[in-house]
Amino acid sequence: MKFRFAPIQSETGQRLLHTVGLENSNIETVIYLKENECFRESSAVLEILKDLGGLWTFASVLKLIPGTLRDGFYRFIAKKRYRFFGKRTTCFIPTPENQKRFLT
User: How far apart are CA 87 and CA 59, in angstroms?
Assistant: First the structure.
């Protein structure tokens, strides 16, 4: 299993954040923990794409762009995500097969 998920607000999410020295002070971004290293915003997305493998690894070239510019673009997309990608009217309910990917 390559990726597992935990809501930041959950007890498990809080415990994981604490292990890397982060406290939940209104964290509104993606956090990717890998081997006790913490990636946030655009760095998290690029690290996830790299770990997906295949053609996604080519996205690593974007790490050449300074983090402040990448994160600014990340925040712009995050702010406009519903306009770009739409908004669901219901919450995602994982299938029994996907349920094992969520930390509890």
Answer: 26
